[in-house]
Amino acid sequence: MSVLFLALLLTAAPVVRAQTVDVEISGNGAGSDNQANVEVKNETSVQSTNTADVANNVDLNSNTGGNTANANTGDQTQIQTGDATENLTIENNVNSQSLDLSSCGDCQSDLNVEVSGNGADSQNSVNTQIENSTNIIVENQAWVQNNVSVSANTGRNEASQNSGAVEISTGNISVDGAVINRVNISSVRVDPQGNNGNIEIKNIQNGANSVNDINVKIENEVNIEKINFAVVENDIDIQANTGENIANENLGDIEISTGNIDIDFEIINDPVNADIVFVDPCCSVDPSIPPEDVITPPPGQVAAAEVSPSSSSSSSEGSSGAALGIASLPNTGPSSFLILTLGWLLLYLCGRKLQIVAAKQERKFRRLSAGW
Questions:
Q1: CB atoms within 10 A of CB 104
Q2: Bridge partners of 315?
Q3: How many CA atoms lie within 13 A of 1 on its CB side?
C-alpha cells in the first residue's frame, strides 16, 4: 500500500496561491491499494476597526465699527470704517481606508491529476479539495462636531450734536467659509480566487477489474461585512452688521452710507458612510484604475467534479465539469467501441453528403445538355 498526503495552509494578505499541484498514481502492481489526498487551502482574513471623535470649535470676531464723534464744532464730521473679511475652511477626513487584496502575480493555479498504468485488480483513489476563502470585516465609527461662530461689525457708529455736516460711511463685510466632512469612506478590492487555472484529470490505461476513484471539489467564497456608524453635527452661527449708526442733534447735513454684507458659507457632508466594493475576477481589469460603481460580492460558489468508475469499466459523472474546464479522459476498453461507432457515423454522414452533391451536379449537367 502506498499513501500520499499533501496539505498546504496559507494565511496572508495579499493572497498568494499555489501555482501548480500535480498528483499522479501510476505504475503500481496488481492488487495494490493506492490513495492520494490533496488539500489546498488559501485563506485571507482582514479585520479593521476604526473609531474617531472629532470636535472643532472656531470663534471669529472682527470689528471696524463702534466709533463715536460727538459735539464737534467744525464744518464737517466724518466717520469712515474699513472692510471686514472672514475666510474659514474646516475639512474633516475621518476613517478613510483602502484595502487591496488582489494578487495579480499569482492568479493561475493548475491542477493535474493522473491515474494510469496500474495493475489489474488494483484500487486507486485520489481526493482533491481546493478551498479559497476571503473574509473581510471593516467597522467604522465616527463622531464629528463642528461649532463655528463668526461675528463681523463695521457699524454701530455715532456722530451726534455736531455743528457742521455729518457723514458716516461703513465698510463692507465679506464672510467666505466651508465645513467639509468626509466620514467613513472605504474602498475594498478583492480577487475572489475564482480562476483555478487549468484542471486536467486523466484516468487511463489501468488494468482489468481495477477500481479508480477521482474526486475533485472546488470552493470559492468571498465574505465582506461592512459596518458604518456616523454622527455629524454642524452648528454655524454668523452675525454681520454694517448698520445701527446714530447721527442725532446735528446742525448741518447728515449722510449715512452703510456697506454691503456678503456671506458665502457652505456645509458639505458627503460622502458619509460610503463604500466601494470591487470583486476582481482574477485581474481582468487594471488594478490601478479605481472602480466607479459599487459591486456586490458574489455568493460563495461550490463546484465539484467526480470521476468514479466501478469494477473493470470507467464512467464519468458530474455536470459541472464543463463549467470548470475539466478535461476527463476515460479508461480504454468499452470507450474504444464508442469511439469506433462515432467514427463510422462520421464516415457515413460524409459519404451521404458527397452523394447529395453529386446528384445535384448530375441534374445540373442534364439541364445544360437539354438546352443545347
A1: 12
A2: none
A3: 5
Residue with cell 474699513: 82
57: left (phi over 0), alpha (psi -120 to 50) or beta: beta
Query: How many residues in the chain?
Result: 372
pLDDT in tens, the chain (372 residues): 333 333 322 223 334 444 578 888 898 888 989 998 988 887 888 888 899 999 999 999 999 999 999 999 988 999 999 999 999 999 999 998 888 877 544 544 678 889 899 988 999 999 988 888 888 899 999 999 999 999 999 999 999 999 999 999 999 999 999 999 999 998 888 875 545 567 888 888 888 888 999 998 888 788 888 899 999 999 999 999 999 999 999 999 999 999 999 999 999 998 999 888 887 655 443 434 444 433 333 333 333 333 333 333 232 233 233 223 333 333 444 444 555 566 666 666 666 655 665 565 556 555 545 554
Distance CA 267, CA 279 (A): 34
The residue among 7, 80, 30 whose CA lies nearest residue 210 is: 30
Task: Compute CA distances 20 → 23, 104, 109, 200, whole Å.
Answer: 10, 16, 5, 11
| φ, ψ at 358 (rounded to 5°) | -65, -40
Residue with cell 455736516: 165
d(CA 43, CA 143): 34
- Give percent helix, percent strand, percent coil of the chain, each to the nearest 5: 10, 55, 30
Q: What is the rounded CA–CA span in Å between residue 363 and residue 137?
A: 77
What is the 8-class DSSP label of residue 117? S
Q: What is the DSSP string of 240-307?
A: EES---B--S-SS-EEEEPPPEEEEEEEEEEEEEEEEEEE-SSS-S-TTSPP-S--PPPPPEEEEEEE
Output the nine-digit C-alpha cell for 339: 469511439
